Amino acid sequence: MLVAILLAVIGVLCGVAPYFALAGILSGLVQNTLTAERIFCYVGIAVLGETLKMLFNTVSSLKAHRVAYHILGNIRCKLAEKMMRVPMGVMVDTPSGKLKAMVVDTVDKLEQPLAHMLPEITANVFTPLCIIILLFILDWRMALACMIVIPIGFLLLMGQMKDYKNRSDRYIEASSNMDSSLVEYVNGIEVIKTFSQTGKSFQKFSDAVKNYHDTTLDWWKNTWLYSALGLTVIPATLVGGIPVGAYLLMQGSISFSIYITCLILSLGIAGPLIQATYYADNFAVVDASIRQVGNFLDEQELVRPSKEVLLTDDGFHFEHVSFGYDKKEVLHDITFSPVAGGKTAIVGPSGSGKSTITKLMAGFWDVTSGHIIYGGQDIRNIPTSQLMKHISFVSQDNFLFNISIKENIRMGNPCATDEEVLAAAKAARCDEFISKMEYGYDTLVGDAGGKLSGGERQRITIARAILKPADVVILDEASAYADPENEVYIEEAINELVKDKTLIVVAHRLETIENSDKIVVVDQGKIVAEGTQSELLKNCALYKRLWNETILTSERKRGDCNA
Ligand SMILES: Nc1ncnc2c1ncn2[C@@H]1O[C@H](COP(=O)(O)OP(=O)(O)OP(=O)(O)O)[C@@H](O)[C@H]1O
């Protein structure tokens, strides 16, 4: 960047040459000393100056852009890395449109200032400075006369900086709101159409667009007068220079060539200065953008060590764990141990805290109090990457990346061979439907997305988990894909997944967990009972009620099928 600034300064200095050449021609003309060779020489100086100016500016701009895009790339990578380290809550609570706006648009706003502002502002301030020094060397009275309008013009321009910080904050907020409501509108288009919410949802987006429009217009309404006056006054250097110079000329205290040179040189002050004020505008944008990016980078992280620790076994233990997403506690003093090497089911009414328990095991959030122990260590003392080597987390959200199906499965174990990927897909009962696709395992998920059913997507994510050599499988059992055929396939896939592993399953349909080694019953964030199916049916009224509801639902379903 320093090289870019230096080159820009040299470029600007070269740009002063044509002014000297013009002054030389004019004073030669008036003093009758001009010859054809002199004219040729002056034109040569002017052309050379302009050419060098263009050359230096181009190289400077190239260098500055390279640096700027390097910086933008670094900021974006830092933001993406940060997303991996902040608690999941920060990611869940921030609309995806807002995150997109920050990583793409806010960071993009730094391109202009970085690539242009630093070299050009330096060059544009340096040139007028050189001209002013030259003017003072030529004649200090002419220098003052020419410059008298500049402070007045700047005072007028300063008027537009009134309330600048608030205005630029409002502008960035309005632009980010417009982005996030557009992303929300696009992501939710299916729900919007299904529930005929088109008008209401579109209204939210059009309100955001209107707000952006009003904010921008409001900004210009507040600044245009100051800007117009300032930009008219600053270039008017001749207003002081011509009369004062003429008077000094009549008095005989300056020569005609000094008079003409000063007037022409003074014309070179305003252009770069005005250009510099345009870039100065960017300071507030830089400030607001950096603050927004900085706030995210300063978000508190889940603190984990980087050095791997010794894990003695693959058993989990909850010891007096309490947790709340915000201030409201949702888990209260939970103590239990899933069966190592066996199957533990977590059951309870909706909203009782089952999924939250599993998310805490995967380290997505930190507990408020108490300890979650894995392999003899508090999970806060285990590096995330080490913990994740031991855990496969299969949630209801069957997220597939827009890469080939094969690569989606391979994410479970990047070192797996094609044969291993195929074996996992077969075990997860995916092979049949994948093979029927035109490009088979190489089909891009984006292309196949419309063709994949919810159950098929889930089986692909199970294949991914089968491939991962983890000791513990945490399964947030899906209740959504309950058509009989898929249900059978998914159950078979899950049975393959959990062979010889510790399984912790959040169960919504109790028939699938009746043979568990341990069933933990959760109600309103507390563990109310634990034991086997037969023990709980005897001792736990809540479990008995949930079981009866399950039986009733199954019978109703069977009745429907028979009918
Ligand atoms: N990201 C979140 N931010 C704030 N509150 C949350 C969040 N996720 C869940 N909750 C709240 O925590 C409580 C427990 O939710 P959790 O998802 O663990 O229940 P659950 O038993 O798994 O429910 P379900 O069976 O319906 O999936 C609920 O009151 C829920 O509203």
Termini separation: 77 Å
Q: List unreliable stretches of 5+ residues.
A: none
Shape by Cα distribution: elongated
Strand line-up in the sheet with most strands: 6-7-8-3-9-10
Average pLDDT reading: 84
Return the structural class. alpha/beta
Number of domains: 2
State the gist of this model.
This protein is of the alpha/beta class. The protein has 24 helices and ten strands. The strands form two sheets. Strands 6-7-8-3-9-10 form a six-stranded mixed beta sheet, sandwiched between helices.
Description:
Pfam families: ABC_membrane, ABC_tran. The chain has two domains: 2-297, ABC transporter type 1, transmembrane domain (ABC transporter transmembrane region fold), CATH 1.20.1560.10; 316-562, P-loop containing nucleotide triphosphate hydrolases (Rossmann fold, 3-Layer(aba) Sandwich). It has helices at residues 2-14, 17-31, 36-85, 88-93, 96-108, 111-138, 140-147, 149-158, 164-187, 189-194, 198-233, 238-251, 256-280, 282-297, 354-361, 384-390, 405-410, 418-427, 431-435, 445-448, 454-467, 484-497, 533-539, 541-562; strands at 316-324, 329-336, 343-347, 369-374, 377-378, 391-394, 472-476, 502-506, 518-523, 526-531. It has 563 residues and is of the alpha/beta class. Helix 22 (484-497) links the parallel strand 7 (472-476) and strand 8 (502-506). The protein contains 24 helices and ten strands. Bound molecules: adenosine-5'-triphosphate. The site of adenosine-5'-triphosphate (ATP) has 12 residues, from helix 4 and helix 15.
